[in-house]
Structure formats: C-alpha cells, structure tokens
Amino acid sequence: MLMRTSYLMLAAAAVSMLAHVADFAPVGEPINNVSSLEQRWVDLGTDVKVSDPVPVPAVHLVARGKKKSSSKKKKTNNKAKKSSKKKKSSSKKKKASKKKKGSSGGTFKGDGTYYNAGMGSCGKTNTDHDMIAALNAPQMGYAANPNNNPNCGKYAKVKGPKGTVRVKIVDTCPPCKKGSLDLSPAAFIKIADLAAGRVPISWSWD
C-alpha cells in the first residue's frame, strides 16, 4: 500500500514539473535547457522513499493422503462396531435360550401313584418293570398328535418317602393334578411301598 502511494506521488510530481517547464518554453519549440529542467526537478523535492516489502507469511499445505487414511480408520472402526453389535446380539440370543430352558425347571410337588404300564400316549409300549411315569395332564399339555408331545421322552428325578428314582415320561395321566406323577410299579417301589398306593412326592426335570 505504501509503495503504491509513492508511485502516485512520483507521477504527480512529474506532471507538475512538465507544467512548470512549459512556462519557460514557447509552444512548438524544443526544450534545450536540460540543466534548468534538472533544477526544477530538485526544487520540487521529489524525494520518494520506498519502504521494504511487507513479508508474506508462509502457508502450510496439508497432504491429501492423510484424509484418506483417516477415512479408512473410520471404516475399520465401523466394522469393529458392527462385529461388537453381532457379538452382543448373539449373547442376547444365548441368554434368551437359557431362559427358555429354565422356564420349565424348578421343583414340583404333588402325589405319587402307580399304574399298570402298556401303550402310552407317546406311542410307545412299556411294561411294569420299566422305569417310566405318566405326567399329569395340566403339565403334559395338549398336542394335535400326542405322540409328538415335546414332553415325551423327558426324564424326571422323583423323590418320595423311601428314596429317589429317575423315570422317563411316556404317558399322560388325565386325573392327576398338577405336580403329580403316575409311576410304573417298578419305579414306585423305589420311593415307597406298593401298599401305600399314594404318597407325597417332589420332583424336577433331569
């Protein structure tokens, strides 16, 4: 800005000098007195000071390749987040499956009786010597095809006054109340005497 002002002052001084020279020289005649022209230049005092140029600050350029690397890092971070989400969802599924398995767990209490085995509702034929039992109707549940009942083939650990026995569910006991089991004679004598006929029991899925 200072340099531009100096140039303007110099141009104005030159114009003024030419105007003064024109006073001494008639129109149409050449100016031969060079020394007088120089004296005019000195008289006008055209001392122009040009300041040093203003330093321009250096500009730091950032390489574009770094931005690409940051985008790659973001992508890898996104993949890591997705994998962690999958792990969380799989762990949630495992917990849900565990809850489903445990929903039918626990200890049940009811009456223990015995019956003469034969063809059961699960579609299998058994004898009185087999360690089997018929599950009460409320817990056995209803199935369109009783042979495909999910409780068929499950094992129960039964505890009575005399001991404990492990039996397989192969039939349904319609008159039995919830928590009760109707056992084969061979299984019943493990927990009580046959003469008792009916005894209190507690049992759980095994």
Automatic annotation (TrEMBL):
Pfam families: DPBB_1. CDD domains: DPBB_EXLX1-like. Residues 110-202 form the RlpA-like protein double-psi beta-barrel domain. InterPro entries: Expansin_CellWall (IPR051477), RlpA-like_DPBB (IPR009009), RlpA-like_sf (IPR036908). The lineage of its organism: Eukaryota, Fungi, Fungi incertae sedis, Mucoromycota, Mucoromycotina. Gene3D superfamilies: RlpA-like domain. This is RlpA-like double-psi beta-barrel-protein domain-containing protein-containing protein. Residues 1-24 form the signal peptide. Residues 62-107 are annotated as: Disordered. Keywords: Signal. Residues 63-102 have a biased composition (Basic residues).
